């Protein structure tokens, strides 16, 4: 599919009554959600990768309170944390995207990952299984998982940059494939609020896919294609359902440091393949003047930062 057609279609849906429901329907049957078991499994793998980084920084699930930035259509990360014995998960989303059918399916699919979750959480497998049974049962009640589990709190519409949580009350703030979609001017307020609510020495983890997402639907372009456009020209292709701020990995690190965090893990590395792809794209002047080729070509980053 030509990426421009997708961009125009999403732009139009953003102004159409009922456009959000239609957009979800298209994603469910034609887009990234059509293979939901595979999509859900990939999110569990992302959670496992995050846990590896966090454990290296000294994070433990039991008794911890965590905040998720950007819940999305189904709560894989909150459910994995619940099964890990976490004390509380606050999951914030600007819009109420959570879908019951996907939430129920997600909980059921986690049955195949209980051993992995138990190992990473350092929790007895039987305890994880009992928690999973309670979770699945809760989704069949009118109260739902929030009231029944007492652990996961879904907050939407709500802004993670204005949480109203007490200062110094949270052990971890995290996101997965979210920061690349926030408005550029919203990043610093989000990081400042994160620092406010974190306990001294608390951790922040973000996994950011900072490559052109249109490349997933159009094989004729690569993940650096959007760097050819000026900020003014790119506004044409940003839309309600796919806003890409085009920030580079180094921007997230610099912003975190400026907001009082110490970087402990940074996976961003240039590689020859991406540098070769960069050479095929006529980079806009604004990017060429602001970044080195190594900084421009990086399209993903996981980072752990500690409240200094």
Compact summary:
This protein has 14 helices and seven strands. The chain has 308 residues and is an alpha/beta fold.
How do the strands and helices of this protein lay out in sequence?
Elements: H1 3-14, H2 19-29, H3 36-56, E1 65-69, H4 76-83, E2 88-92, H5 100-109, H6 114-121, H7 125-138, H8 144-149, E3 152-155, E4 170-176, H9 187-197, E5 198-208, H10 231-234, H11 249-258, E6 261-266, H12 272-278, H13 285-290, H14 293-297, E7 301-307
Parallel strand pairs: 1-2, 1-4, 2-3, 4-5
Antiparallel strand pairs: 5-7, 6-7
Task: Please explain how this structure is put together.
By secondary structure, the protein is of the alpha/beta class. It has one domain: Rossmann fold (3-Layer(aba) Sandwich). Helices cover 43% and strands 15% of the residues. The protein has a 7-stranded mixed beta sheet with strand order 3-2-1-4-5-7-6, with helices on both faces. β1 (65-69), α4 (76-83) and β2 (88-92) form a beta-alpha-beta unit.
């Amino acid at each position: 599919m030509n990426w421009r057609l997708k961009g125009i279609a999403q732009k139009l849906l953003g102004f159409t009554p009922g456009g959000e429901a239609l957009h979800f329907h298209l994603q469910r049957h034609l887009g990234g959600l059509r293979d939901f078991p595979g999509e859900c499994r990939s999110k569990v793998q992302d959670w496992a990768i995050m846990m590896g980084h966090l454990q290296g920084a000294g994070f433990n699930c039991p008794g911890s309170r965590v905040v998720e930035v950007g819940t999305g259509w189904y709560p894989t990360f909150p459910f994995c944390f619940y099964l890990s014995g976490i004390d509380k998960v606050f999951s914030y989303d600007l819009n109420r995207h959570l879908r019951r059918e996907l939430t129920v399916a997600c909980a059921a699919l986690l049955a195949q990952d209980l051993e992995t979750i138990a190992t990473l959480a350092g929790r007895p497998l039987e305890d994880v299984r009992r928690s999973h049974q309670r979770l699945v049962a809760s989704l069949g009640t009118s109260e739902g998982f929030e009231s029944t589990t007492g652990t996961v709190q879904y907050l939407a519409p709500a802004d993670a940059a204005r949480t109203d949580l007490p200062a110094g009350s949270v052990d971890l703030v995290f996101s997965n494939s979210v920061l690349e979609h926030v408005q550029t001017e919203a990043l610093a307020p989000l990081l400042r609020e994160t620092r406010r609510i974190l306990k001294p020495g608390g951790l922040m983890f973000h996994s950011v896919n900072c490559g052109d997402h249109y490349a997933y639907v159009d094989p004729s372009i690569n993940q650096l294609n959007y760097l050819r456009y000026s900020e003014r020209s790119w506004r044409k292709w940003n839309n309600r359902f796919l806003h890409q701020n085009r920030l580079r990995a180094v921007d997230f690190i610099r912003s975190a440091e400026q907001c009082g965090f110490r970087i402990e893990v940074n996976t961003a590395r240039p590689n020859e393949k991406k540098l070769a792809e960069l050479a095929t794209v006529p980079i806009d002047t604004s990017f060429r003047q602001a970044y080195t080729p190594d900084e421009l070509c990086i399209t993903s980053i996981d980072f752990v930062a500690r409240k200094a």
